[in-house]
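Q: Please design a sequence for this.
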């Protein structure tokens, strides 16, 4: 699933293992992702939600329309992975990339785009002609293989984060995330593998509902709704979590 250009430009971290090398590093995880994609995607989302402490929102909040943009019971994840398996897997990848700051390599993008375009070409051709069964099977095999590669690469990265601890998305990534994504991050509670939940609220350190202190930030008054919120740093453009208006934070 393509990520908006303004977000990809701010992703600077590297994957522990490339998409092409992932199956060799964890072949059993690769086979799991290939042959039982629904179960693999479900289990991985559960891991991500536990790790980040964020509430469950359908497709990781990529389609914030009506109830799809609101926290739901986790049992809805069953419907997501069964009915929209590709979107669910892509949502897992979006979470890994934006929460842990992971940038696709040129090879990763080439593999993902080639598979996507090949599958679309086969589907379009079926509208005008009889596509040989062998071509259809080749497209299905390519999709299953890439699904397994994506799942494995993301699995390895999650295990690394569990070892090193999760401290929330970096400030330069949070500054370009859509308002709904910021809201999801703000609703997070401390996870099992990390420190305090990431906060965008500024002001002096104070006790939060989970204990400990909130990190100090820069207070900003929104030019659209006049609500006060926090920016993790100066000299960036941040979206107001209340109304979505983009505000320029001056250098201090």
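A: Design:
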């Amino acid at each position: 699933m393509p990520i908006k250009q303004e977000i990809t430009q701010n992703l600077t971290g590297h994957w522990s293992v490339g998409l092409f090398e992932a199956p060799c590093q964890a072949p059993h995880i690769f086979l799991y992702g290939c042959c039982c994609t629904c179960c693999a995607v479900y289990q991985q989302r559960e891991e991500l939600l536990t790790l980040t402490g964020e509430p469950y929102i359908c497709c990781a909040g990529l389609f914030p329309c009506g109830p799809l943009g609101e926290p739901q019971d986790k049992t809805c994840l069953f419907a997501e992975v069964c009915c929209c398996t590709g979107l669910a897997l892509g949502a897992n990848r979006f979470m890994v990339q934006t929460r842990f700051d992971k940038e696709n390599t040129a090879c990763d993008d080439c593999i993902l785009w080639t598979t996507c375009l090949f599958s679309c070409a086969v589907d379009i051709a079926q509208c005008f002609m009889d596509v040989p069964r062998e071509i259809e099977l080749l497209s299905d095999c390519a999709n299953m293989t890439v699904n397994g590669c994506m799942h494995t690469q993301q699995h390895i990265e999650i295990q690394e984060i569990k070892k090193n601890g999760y401290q929330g998305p970096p400030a330069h990534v949070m500054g370009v995330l859509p308002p709904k994504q910021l809201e999801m991050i703000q609703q997070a509670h401390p996870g099992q593998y990390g420190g305090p939940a990431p906060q965008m609220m500024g002001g002096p350190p104070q006790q939060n509902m989970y204990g400990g202190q909130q990190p100090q930030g820069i207070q900003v008054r929104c030019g659209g709704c006049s609500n006060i919120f926090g920016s993790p740093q100066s000299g960036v453009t941040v979206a107001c979590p209340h109304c979505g208006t983009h505000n320029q934070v001056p250098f201090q």
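Q: Thanks. Anything notable?
A: The chain has ten helices and four strands. Residues 133-164 form the longest helix (32 residues).
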